[in-house]
## 1
Amino acid sequence: MTQGQHFTRLARGAAQPAGHASLRRTNLSLVLRHLRDHGSSSRADIAEATGLHRATVSNLMAELLERRLVREVGIEHAGTVGRPRRAVALDGAHVGVLGLEINVDYVAVHGTDLGGRVLVERRVGFDAMGSGTDHSLRELGRVARQAIDELTRAGAGPSGLGPGDLAASGASGVAASGGGIRVAGIGVAVPGLVDVGHGVVALAPNLGWRDVSLASRLSVALGDVQAPVTVDNDANLAALAEYTSGVAAGTADMVYLTGEVGVGGGIIVGGRLLRGADGFSGEVGHMPVDPGGSRCGCGRSGCWETKVGLAALVRMATPDRAYGMATAPVPDPEERVAEIARGLAGGDPLMLAAVAEVGRWLGLGGSILVNLFNPRVIVVGGYFATLARWLLPFAQAELEDLVVAGPAARCRFVASDLGFGAASLGAANVVINQLIDDPTAIGSPPVRLAAPQPTAT
Ligand SMILES: [Zn+2]
C-alpha cells in the first residue's frame, strides 16, 4: 500500500482486471468485506453471497485464517435448515488502526483493531492555531506515538467480541488473545484543503498551514512504526462516519457540517462523497455571506464561519472568554460549550440572544446548501450538536424561509450523536476500508501467543 491512497476507489473494492495476485487480492477482500458487513457466516453462505466457488472460498479462508484476519467461531444454526455449519468471523485483533484529528484547539484519537473494536479514544486540548506548523506536527506525532503504545498494550489483553459477532447466532468459541497488536495504518483528519493523493495539506487557514506534507512528515516522526499515513479533510471523514454509523446513516443525500472554530462541509450526493475536480469541495465555511463582516482565518471577510463558528458564538455569548485572548491552559472546547449550555439552561439573556443569532445564520447558510444539493438532512456535529436544542429551531425556521422550495424540500437539521470524535472515527474507518481492500498489504501476524480455539464439529 502506498501513502495517501484515494479511499473512494479503495472503499468500493471495485473488481480489477489483471493477474492472479490481483484477482486473489480482490477475492480475499470480497470475503472480508462480507464478514465485516454481515457478521459471522458459513463458507457456504459466503460463496452464495459473493458468487465465488465454494472451493475458492475454502481456499481463501485458509489464507485468511493463516493471517488471523478471520477466526472460526463455531457452529451457526441461524436460519439454516439441515446440518449446522461451521462459521467464521472477521478477526484482525492483532491489526491496529489509528484515526487522528488535529483541529484548532485539540488533537483527537480513535484507535481500533481491524474489527472496529475501540481500544483508545480521547481528545487532548492543544492550541494548534497559536503553535505554528512545526510545533503542531511535533504534538500530533507525540499524541500518535502515545496512542500507538497504548494500542500495542491493549492488544496484549483479551479480545472482546467484534460488532460482527452480534449477528452470530448460536456461535461458540471466543476470540484468541491478542498478544502484540501492530498498527497497520494511520488516518489523519485536518480542517483544510487536502491533496489526498499525496497526503499534503494545501491550506488549513485556521491552523495557519500551507503546503504541509503531512503524510510524509508524520511517517518520519513515527520512524519505526512504518504504517502508511492517509490524510483527508475533517468534514469529509466525519461525513463518511455519519453515512456509515451516524443518526442519518444510509441517507443517500446528506450534508454534514463540522461545528468547531472553523466550519467545514462533507457533501454526500447519491451515496457518494462529492470531492470536486481537485478534492477541494465542501469549503462551506468560506461561503461569503456578509461581505462587510469580520475577518476570517482565510484572509477574506464575512465568511459563513465568522457567523456560525465556535469563536463567533463564544465572542457573543461569553465575550470575556473570547478566542484570541491569552489564557493558559487553553480552554477545552467542550468545556467552553458546556459553560454556554449551562447559561442557556439557566435562561441567560445574552447567551440566548447569541444562540438565536448564530442559529439564524446557520439556517441562512444551510439554505444555500439545500438550494444547491437538495439534501434530505443536514447533520450537524461539534458544538452545533451539543447546543442543538437551542440552535436548530432558529436554523430550521430560517432554512424553510429562505430555501426556494420552502418546506417542500423536506430537509431537516439533525444533531450528530458521534460527538467531537466523528472525524477521527471516519479516519479510522477509511484505513479499515483500505486494509480490507487489500488484506495482503497487512503484515504477517506477530508471534502467536494463544492457540486457536478448537472448533466444534
Ligand atoms: Zn474564510
## 2
Amino acid sequence: MRGPTESFDYIIVGAGSAGCVLANRLTASGRHRVLLLEAGGADRNIWIHIPLGYGKLFANKKVNWLYSTEPEPELDGRRIIQPRGKVLGGSSSINGLLYIRGQREDFDHWRQLGNAGWSFDDVLPYFRRAEDQERGEDSLHGVGGPLAVSNVCEPHPVCEAFLTAVEQAGFPRNDDFNGPTQEGAGYYQLTARNGRRCSTAVGYLRPARRRHNLVVAANALTRRILFDGRRAIGVEYLEGRATRTAYAAGEVIVAGGAFNSPQLLQLSGLGPAALLQSCGIDVVADMPGVGADLQDHLQVRMQYRCTEPITMNDVINSRRQRLAAGLRYVLWRKGLLTIGAGYAGGFFRTDRSLATPDVQVNLLIFSADTVGAALHPFPGFIAAVCQLRPESRGHVRIKSADPSEPPAIQPRYLSAPADRDVIMRGMKLLRRIMGQPAIRRYIAEEHAPGAHCTGDEDLLAFARATGTTVFHPTSTCRMGRDATAVVDERLRVHGIERLRVADASIMPTVVSGNTNAAVIMIAEKAADMILADATAGAVTPASPSRAA
Ligand SMILES: Cc1cc2nc3c(=O)[nH]c(=O)nc-3n(C[C@H](O)[C@H](O)[C@H](O)COP(=O)(O)OP(=O)(O)OC[C@H]3O[C@@H](n4cnc5c(N)ncnc54)[C@H](O)[C@@H]3O)c2cc1C
C-alpha cells in the first residue's frame, strides 16, 4: 500500500504511446525508481486487442476521453469528435493500428527549424530500435524491438482493384510506405502481432511491470505539477477519492498527449498569463505557446456503393458471415477481425511540382455515413483523402481551474486557404483514380458526395459539411527556439527546471502520415536524453533507498 506522499526519481504523467515507452526505458537499468500515472484503467477490454475492435472504442467512455472540438467556423459550425485513449496504452490502445512514420523531409524540416538532433538521420535509429518488423531488418527497419509491425494478412479484391487503378492513373505502386520513398499506393502495415494489437502497453509496459523499480498507478488523474519557484518537484494526483502527492528527485515528464499535456501545464501555472488569471490560477511562467499551434489532419471520406457483396458491410450485416469471420479469427487469427483503420492506401502529390506527397488516401472496405456510425445496409467502401501538411493552426485552452473539465479544443480546420485548395485537389485526384477501369467495375455509384457534386465549390462544400479528424492532433507544446516554443530540443520546458514534455504535443509540425510511430520515436529519444542528462549530472537521481 502506498502512502499519501511518495518520492521517485522520475514521474511520468500519462501511460499512452509515449508514457509506456518512457516507463520501460527509464526503468531498464534498475537504477531509477519511476512512477507512471494514468488517468484511465487497465487495458482489459477485449476489443482493444482485436484490431477490428477499433470501431467499438470510438464511443466507449471507459477507455476514451470522448473529447470534441468547439464549433468549427470553416466546417459549417460543427463540433468534430476527438477520441483519445484513456487507458493503459493511451491512444495506442484505441487507434487504427496503421504503422506510418512520416516523410524523411518532415524530420529534416524539424532540424531546419533549429532543433538539433531531430533530422531524419538522427531519429532513424530510434524508429529502428522500437521496431520488430515482420519483413526483417534492413537499413531502414529494425527487428527485435518492443513494437510489432506486421503485414495485413491477405489481399482483398477491392484493394487489388484500387492499387491497379492507381497505376492506371499514372501513380506508382509502393510496397513500403516507410521505405526509401513514401509516394505511391500499397497495403498498410499494422502495429500488431499474430492478429493482436501491439499497443505500447502491450509492447513496452507489460515486460517492464515485473520490475521492482516501476510503480504504475492507473485511474490516477494528475491534477497539477508542483513547483519550487521555477523547478518542478512533483505532482498532485487523484487516485479514487484520495488526493496524493508524489515528489520527483529527478524530473517530471509530461506525456498526456496533444490535448491533456497543454491542459496540465496550464492548470499548473504554465501558459498564457491572461488565460490562467481568468481561471484563477497563479502564474508560474507566462508562456503564450502552451496550447497554441494545434495542428491536425482533416479527412474527407468519399463513399462508394459496391457492385458486389464483398465488403465488410456484407459481413457485419449477415449473422452467418459474422460468425464465420469470428471463427476464422479464433482458429487462425485471420480475416476481417485482423484489419485496422485502413487496408490499403497511398500517398500522392496533388501537384506534380511538389517535392513529396501532400495527401494520403485511406481505403476502407466498409462504408458508413459518419465515423463510428452503423455500416450501410448495402455493399460499400470508402476512400478518404487527408491533407498531410495543414497550414491551419488552432489551440487548446482550459475553461476553468477544474482538472476534470475538458479544455476548449479548437483546431480551426480549413482556416488556411492553402488547406482548402489541397483538400479540393485531393478529392479531384481521388476521383481520377476511381474513374480508372480496374476499380470502376466495383463502383455502382459514388454514394457521397455523388454525381451532382462537380465544381470546386461543391467539393469544398462537401468537405465543410462532412470533413472530420484523422485523429492526429499535435504541436500544442511545440519544440523550438522561438518565443512561443514550449520545449527545447532536449524536450525541457523553456525556463523551467526538471520538467519535460514528451509526446505528440512537442512535434514542431505534424508529420506527413499517421502519428503513433513518430510519438514512439520521440519517447525513445526522450528516454535516452533523460538518462544521458542524469549520467552527466544535469539531474541527480534519488537513490532507490530514498524512495518511499
Ligand atoms: C481513434 C484514433 C485512431 C488513430 N489511428 C492511428 C493509426 O492508425 N496510426 C497511427 O499512427 N496513429 C493513429 N492515431 C494517433 C496516435 O494513436 C496518437 O498520435 C498517439 O497515440 C498519441 O500518443 P501520445 O503519447 O501523445 O498520447 P496518448 O497515447 O493519447 O497518451 C496520453 C495518455 O495520458 C493519459 N493522461 C492524460 N492526461 C492525464 C492526466 N492529467 N493524468 C494522468 N494521465 C493522463 C491519457 O489517459 C493517455 O493514456 C489514432 C488516434 C486515435 C484516437
